[in-house]
Write a structure and sequence with these properties.
two-stranded antiparallel sheet, 12 strands, 438 residues, alpha+beta, 13 helices, 10-stranded mixed sheet
Length: 438
Amino acid sequence: MKNSDAIKALLFAVINKIATDPGKYAVNPGRDFTRNRKLGFHHTLMMLLTMEADCIKEELYRYFGRTTDAPSKAAFYKQRRKLTDDALANLFHQFNSSLQKNLYNGKYQLIACDGSAADIFRNPDDPDTFFEPNGKSTRGFNQVYINAFYSILDRRFTNLVVQPGRKRNEYAAFCEMVDAAKSDGPPAIYFADMGFTSYNNFAHVIENGQFFLIRCNDKKLEGLLGRKVRGLKEMDCRVERILTRTQSKKKRSRPLLSECYRHICKKVPFDYLDGSRCEYDISLRAVRFEISPGCFENIITNLPEHEFDFEDFKELYHLRWNEENAFRDLKYPLCLKAFHSKKYEYIVQEIWARAILHNFSSAIISGVHIDSEGRKYEYQVNFAEAFKTCRDFLRIHDGRTEMDVEGLIARNIEPVRPGRTFARRHRFKLPISFCYRN
């Protein structure tokens, strides 16, 4: 069996398993998804997974064929309304658990954390998602914010937390995803950018028996160390700190270690200091190295020195950038810029669906071998084209049509040119609008 057929069989097996008891994922158990319809539970999920940036009628024709027997738009609206909020999220997690994991050094999962905003239908009456007119838009706009965990070596998402744009809280989302991760599998190393530098984030990872590697600016690093770092070109040291809510020296249980104490303001979240616990001990490792002449990178981590030396961090630092490409693929080849609804809960539904399609495609793409022998450059898969091929492959459900998925993916390749850098382009792009959206 080809890898693409095996991955599709895994996804179908999970969907069929869920479909055996649709009442668990129905808004009205015992009534919803009990009748035999053209657009039943299975096909409703498949429609959500394979939709592109077209109107619902065209999406239905694309899935069922351009015939008079194709279900109507109204039928699709009624069926998607029957799904609970966690139906697609459960499918996402169950499918992920059926896929194999690639490990760093045969031991660690590498999980990058980042977020990205997605523009949705304009609605000035929604205070949770509407942003007033500014330099990006003279009319104002609405957004949701997608926080994600992304497996760097597997190139797939492992968890999502979707928040209204106005209620964006990356710190809370990070802690929620860390706490939700299973601790019985391989240990994880969480990668994150400067915006995630927080004692609370560090503590949540440590309490769950995992590891982190989080970038830090000079100001926060100096606050942690208690000294200036601007003159340092390289550094790798262990820092022991005692966190407390009080600034009173009289209340400190270890006055001889006064230099180790750090005050956590009451307005700053820290979930491990309460009435029963006044002090929290934390052991951190601070690493600083030069990435280009005059440009330095600071990293806060809890990785052990006997397994990860100074040079290892230079390699690990560059790995996390794959998640930036993943969000780009999610928005454009996988059409996350085109939501087929105005309602917030349906938008979240489609975000989970796009993430499932991304993971399905990545699992197939990872099994395609690209031969670079005799070529000037090393070549890689053109992921934008590969995602489209995998979506068309997933849409096939008649049992007769065949597609050479691996062959099509291998034909669409592009050279790898390491060392190329481009300035990030910040562009505001309006979401695609359909007047019929519910």
